[in-house]
Design goal:
single chain; alpha+beta; 3-stranded mixed beta sheet; about 30% helix; globular; disordered N terminus; HNH endonuclease
Amino acid sequence: MKIFFDKYSHGGYGSTLLDPRWKRKRLEIIERDNYRCIICKSDKFLEVHHRQYHFSKSKNSFKYPWEYPSHLMITLCRRCHQKGHRLYKVPIKYIE
């Protein structure tokens, strides 16, 4: 996913997590999911998981995290999020 990082000038993907647009989108998803992990129902250490990534061939980069439609994001606790990434690869959809 290195190409994704090239869109940002300060620290790669991690810096996008500080962007106000991501903070708003993240809160929107967590609120929608009632401040709970959708798997174990925990309300601790909540994170937002992208169910797929979109790679633009014409721009040679991934979308910004906040540009995805809400139905492609879910709230997970840190434990379930890490477990999911260990078990499954997030699919990439290639778009023009």
